[in-house]
Structures are given as C-alpha cells and as structure tokens.
Amino acid sequence: MEFIKAKEEHLDRIWEITGMAKAQLKNLGLDQWQTGYPSLEIWKNDIAEGMAYLTVEEGKILGAFAYQVTPDVSYHEIENGEWLTDTPYASMHRVIVADGCKGKGVAGKMFAYGFSMAERDGFDSVRIDTHPGNIPMQRALGKAGFKACGEIHLAQGPEKGHIRIGFERIL
Questions:
Q1: pLDDT score at 111
Q2: Distance (Å, rounded) from C-alpha 169 to C-alpha 102?
Q3: For residues 98 and 60, what is the distance between their CA atoms, to the nearest angstrom?
Q4: 153 contacts 162 by C-beta, under 8 angstroms
Q5: SS3 letters across the chain
Q6: Beta carbons of 6 and 61 less than 8 angstroms apart
Q7: Contacts 24+ apart (CB under 8 A), 133-139
Q8: CB 102 within 8 A of CB 137
Q9: Cα dist from 89 to 28, 70, 148, 152, whole Å
Q10: What pLDDT is recorded for position 28?
C-alpha cells in the first residue's frame, strides 16, 4: 500500500468513493454528509492546495483523505471537554474508504500516514472530528490512538452549526 498526492485525474474515483461513504452514513441513519458536503468542489480545492492524498494498492485507489496544516476554524472552541494539547496541530478530514476495502486496515494505515506527515511537519498532535452517531469511525479513531476530547460545532459549509465529536492524538 502506498500514499500519493491526488491529482485532477483522480477526481472521478475520489467522487465515487465519496458517494459510497455518503450512502453508508445514510444507511446508518445519520445526517452527516447528506447536505452537499463534501462536494466535488471541496475535493478539487483539496487537490489544488496539495491537501488530498490517496491510498493506492496495485494501481487501485482504495481511499482518500485531506491533510490540513492550518488551524481548523471549527476546532477553535470545544465544549464538554478540552483538547489534549494547546500547541499547533495538523488535522485530517474527509477520510473515505471504498466499499469492499473496509475492515482491512485501510483507514488505520491512512491515519498512520497522516501521523507521519504531521511528525515530519513538526506538529505535536493530529485532530479530527466525526458525527456522534458515526460509531464505525469512532471505533477506527480509537484503534488509531485518538482520544475523544469534547464537542465542536462545525463553523462553515452546509453542515454549519452541526455538532461533532472532536478527537486528538498526541504524536
């Protein structure tokens, strides 16, 4: 398994996997990602900014994620808890794994790669968030060493104001 930066030519596959993730969340009865987020434009922007990464095995794209090195506005305030650190952090967003590849450690390897990039970039921790009802993602985050820190409110986009659980992993 290898990790590469996504390019425009990968957009169709990223969008296909995003659709799979949206369908899974809908089947779980969650409103997460059901209001136009993430959009194709968001993925295009991630690619243009060099933030989008792919998990590839034998030439096949198994998953994707965004790696952010600037502070996330949604993480400025946290309720019913606190972040583990108050130092600069990297964050991971839009972690998606293709149907048929779930349960095979793909997400865990993506998190590990994100941790290695964050260490390389001089960060002390990585943050991420997910819907309170997204138990599969919460399990994956726990396996990767993330700790639930409290509730955040999304600060922008179609899900602005929605509550998410903020997670952090100290590197």
A1: 98
A2: 22
A3: 10
A4: yes
A5: CEEEECCHHHHHHHHHHHHHHHHHHHHCCCCCCCCCCCCHHHHHHHHHCCCEEEEEECCEEEEEEEEECCCCHHHCCCECCCCCCCCCCEEEEEEEECCCCCCCCHHHHHHHHHHHHHHHCCCCEEEEEECCCCHHHHHHHHHCCCEEEEEEECCCCCCCCCEEEEEEEEC
A6: no
A7: 133/28, 133/29, 133/30, 133/32, 134/25, 134/28, 134/30, 134/32, 135/28, 136/24, 136/28, 137/95, 138/165
A8: no
A9: 30, 8, 16, 16
A10: 94
Q: Residue-wise over 27-54: b if at least 16 C-beta within 10 A, else e?
A: eeebebbeeebbeeebbbebbeeebbbb
- From first to last of its 171 residues, what are the pLDDT tens digits of the chain? 999 999 999 999 999 999 999 999 999 999 999 999 999 999 999 999 999 999 999 999 999 999 999 999 999 999 999 999 999 999 999 999 999 998 889 999 999 999 999 999 999 999 999 999 999 999 999 999 999 999 999 999 999 999 999 999 999
Provide the token pair at 64: 């994707």
Amino acid at the residue 56: V
Rounded distance, CA 105 to CA 125, Å? 21
Q: What pLDDT is recorded for position 103?
A: 86
